[in-house]
Design brief:
The chain is α+β, with helices and mostly antiparallel strands and 207 residues long. The chain has one domain. Helices cover 59% and strands 18% of the residues. Strands 2-1-5 form a 3-stranded antiparallel beta sheet, with no helix packed on it. It has a two-stranded antiparallel ribbon with strand order 3-4. Strand 3 and strand 4 form a beta hairpin. Helix 1 runs antiparallel to helix 2 and helix 4 packs antiparallel against helix 5. 27% of the residues are buried.
């Protein structure tokens, strides 16, 4: 067992640090979000808050003489996105430890680079699918938190800013790009790539 940081002077090591940071950014922006819908009717004001995992069930929001409802379950999309982010963060941390402590074994063992490559492919697919699912869920969330203004209620309805959640979607697709971009550097460590490299024989040097 060795202990060195040489892998982090190579693209595969640098990319793992970037994966770790951006994975945290992705799930932190959604799991820590708290929004609200503010109802102002005549002299009464009601603030209905909602948060992760966005499982909305508010069938009777009474404001003055009016009743509103906010309904919608977007928890599956949100949880899928957060789970992908957490697992990606943990894997980035785990493989970084392998790079630091077992780098010589990683380079000499044909199986470890292949496993690393395949798992990275899986995470690329997870980031793409979870980001698309959460983008669709966020669209539904925005629609659900915009109740229809009733003409006879004379109410003013305002909704919290969704910019943080919009950023989480951007982080999701950015993570997909980063994990996909790392595949080339990992592929070069596998026997698939090295087996295709031309072998230089001693006769070539003699010529």
């Amino acid at each position: 067992m060795d202990f060195n940081l040489s892998a982090f002077r190579e693209p595969r090591g640098v990319m793992r640090v970037i994966h770790f940071i951006f994975s945290i950014c992705a799930f932190a922006t959604i799991s820590g979000y708290t929004g609200y819908v503010l109802f102002k009717c005549k002299n009464e004001t009601v603030k209905q808050e909602f948060e992760y995992p966005f499982q909305l069930y508010y069938p009777n929001i009474s404001v003055s003489t009016c009743t509103y409802s906010i309904m919608g379950d977007y928890s599956s999309d949100a949880k899928y996105f957060v789970a992908t982010g957490v697992l990606a963060m943990l894997y980035s941390l785990a493989i970084s430890v392998v790079y630091i402590k077992f780098d010589n074994m990683y380079k000499s063992n044909n199986q470890l680079p292949l496993i690393d490559f395949i798992i990275t492919v899986i995470f690329g697919v997870l980031w793409l699918s979870s980001s698309a699912a959460w983008a669709n869920g966020l669209s539904g969330l925005k629609s659900a938190t915009e109740p229809i203004v009733k003409p006879d209620c004379n109410c003013n309805i305002t909704t919290s800013n969704f910019s943080t959640l919009n950023i989480s979607v951007i982080f999701g697709f950015l993570n997909f790009f980063l994990w996909a971009a790392d595949l080339w550097f990992l592929y070069k460590e596998t026997t698939w790539f090295q087996g295709n490299q031309p072998q230089i024989s001693s006769e070539s040097f003699e010529k």
